[in-house]
């Protein structure tokens, strides 16, 4: 039973809104409701048996014990239910959305069950007799209806918590920066605990462009879940998102009037680790490298051709032309197979993202740089690596 409660808590709507806190609320809510219903049915059956055996005093003691337990269980159900409801449904949408209306039916049924339980408790105190069979059976039937309406509720999508924001929510903790390009639209992704933010850009300013974006996350187990993106300004979208530990795929579909859009997929190896030391190692290696050969593919439209060129340059000179030559405000390192790592660098003020594939010594093997105007992919060769 505990396993079922835990599993349901982690996939319920409150968890998506408040991560661990939402899951804890759901777990307590489910556990209290289950014990309430189960204890009621057990008490009714035992009391019926004892009445047939003419043991009314024993039955009354059992009922009194159940009444005390039920009082705490009802309090737990009500408190956790109210808090979970506030997390999932804005009060302004309680009466105007399908989810809110079904939730109101559940609230009414829970209120009815509490009223019946209170009537039975008062009867027990006033007369000293056992619980009236009809009241007990009616309470059990109402609780069964609550369970049925709850089953309907979990299948419905909750309404959006709020309308579009004016600005993107600020990062809360370390940020994993990623970038991609779909057609002519540049994509900058900022991921941190419980949140994802997308910034879309085009070769021109793009201010006022009514971009659209859709997203889905495929977790390490292969389960794909839609991500409900909301607006946060021009070309900005955000969503609460609980990142699963391990390698996931964030799939994006973006479009904008007058601009070629399309599909992009980003590998997200969560949570990664701080990449500051790895970046220092990379820049030190480049600065000390006499000569490198860089094969470069550049495009502003991923649906069209790219321009390719090969450049032989000194490591220090190349480093001086790269944004990470002066460090990076955001740096996270992720595993990428035996002997390799991925170093993700973010420059949110410029909407620039760099993804470096490096070896264990900190030498760059490949680079992908994205910004609002271009996608640049580079491969590195070190003629002096045996020196």
Q: What does this protein look like?
A:
The structure is a single chain. With 387 residues, this protein is of the alpha+beta class. It has 3 domains: 2-153; 176-270, Sandwich (Immunoglobulin-like), CATH 2.60.40.1930; 273-381, Clam (outer membrane lipoprotein receptor (LolB), chain A), CATH 2.50.20. Helices cover 40% and strands 30% of the residues. The protein has an 8-stranded antiparallel β-sheet with strand order 10-13-14-15-16-17-11-12. A hairpin with a 5-residue loop joins strand 4 and strand 5 (224-227). Helix 2 runs antiparallel to helix 3 (56-88). The chain is elongated. The protein starts with a helix and ends in a 6-residue tail after the last strand. The model has no long low-confidence stretch (mean pLDDT 87).
Q: Globular, elongated, flat, extended or rod-shaped: what is the shape?
A: elongated
Distance between the amino and carboxyl termini: 64 Å
What's the average pLDDT?
A: 87
> Unreliable stretches, pLDDT < 50, 5 or more residues?
none
Structural class: alpha+beta
Beta fraction: 25-35%
Helix/strand order: HHHHHEEEEEEEEEEHEEHEEEEE
Number of helices: 7
Strand order within the widest sheet? 10-13-14-15-16-17-11-12
Helix content: 25-40%
């Amino acid at each position: 039973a505990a396993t079922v409660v835990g599993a349901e808590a982690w996939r319920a709507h409150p968890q998506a809104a408040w991560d661990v806190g939402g899951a804890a609320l759901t777990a307590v809510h489910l556990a209290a409701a289950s014990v309430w219903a189960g204890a009621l049915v057990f008490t009714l059956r035992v009391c019926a048996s004892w009445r047939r055996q003419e043991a009314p005093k024993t039955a009354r003691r059992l009922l009194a014990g159940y009444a005390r337990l039920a009082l705490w269980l009802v309090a737990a159900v009500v408190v956790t239910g109210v808090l979970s409801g506030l997390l999932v449904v804005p009060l302004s949408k309680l009466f105007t959305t399908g989810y809110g209306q079904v939730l109101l039916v559940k609230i009414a049924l829970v209120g009815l069950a509490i009223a019946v339980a209170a009537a039975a408790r008062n009867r027990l105190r006033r007369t000293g007799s056992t619980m009236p069979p009809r009241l007990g059976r009616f309470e059990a039937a109402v609780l069964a209806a609550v369970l049925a309406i709850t089953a309907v509720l979990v299948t419905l999508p909750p309404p959006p918590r709020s309308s579009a924001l004016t600005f993107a929510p600020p990062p809360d903790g370390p940020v994993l920066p990623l970038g991609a390009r779909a057609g002519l639209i540049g994509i900058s992704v900022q991921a941190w605990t419980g949140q994802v933010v997308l910034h879309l850009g085009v070769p021109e300013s793009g201010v006022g462009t009514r971009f659209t974006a859709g997203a889905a996350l495929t977790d390490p187990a292969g389960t794909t879940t839609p991500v409900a993106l909301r607006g946060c300004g021009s070309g900005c979208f955000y969503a609460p998102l609980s990142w699963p530990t391990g390698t996931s795929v964030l799939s994006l579909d973006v479009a904008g009037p007058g601009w070629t859009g399309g599909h992009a997929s980003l590998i997200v190896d969560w949570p990664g680790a701080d990449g500051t030391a790895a970046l220092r190692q990379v820049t030190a290696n480049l600065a000390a490298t006499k000569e490198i050969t860089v094969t470069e593919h550049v495009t502003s439209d991923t649906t069209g051709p790219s321009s390719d060129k090969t450049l032989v340059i000194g490591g220090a000179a190349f480093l001086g032309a790269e944004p990470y030559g002066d460090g990076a405000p955001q740096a996270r390192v992720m595993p990428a197979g035996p002997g390799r790592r991925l170093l993700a660098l973010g420059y949110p003020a410029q909407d620039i993202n760099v993804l470096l594939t490096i070896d264990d010594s900190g030498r760059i093997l490949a680079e992908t740089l994205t910004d609002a105007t271009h996608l640049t992919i580079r491969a590195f060769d070190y003629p002096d690596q045996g020196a």
